[in-house]
Amino acid sequence: MPISHQDKLNLLKDILNNHQMDCCGSVSECEQLKRLVKSLMVHPSLDEHAQSILEEIYKYSQHGINSVHLDNHIESHQNELTQWVSDINQFT
């Protein structure tokens, strides 16, 4: 059974929140973020602002996957992580 659009947004927020609060994460979490964002970007009611945020999160996850020091990558994006979670709350 596929998960709903809202469930995907909640999962996205949960992972981003964990990265923001713990200042660490895993490559598999970044891969999951990437998959979630790709599936959310095809939603028909997605506005331009939401699309832009998802593109930023996609780039963040892609760089995290390829990062030698993932925890440093996460730490350097603390402000963005907080903003993304806040933004996602606006369109959920």
From TrEMBL:
One family name in Pfam for this protein: YtzH
Recorded superkingdom: Bacteria
**What's the protein called, per UniProt?**
YtzH-like protein
Instruction: State the organism named in the record.
Output: Cytobacillus dafuensis
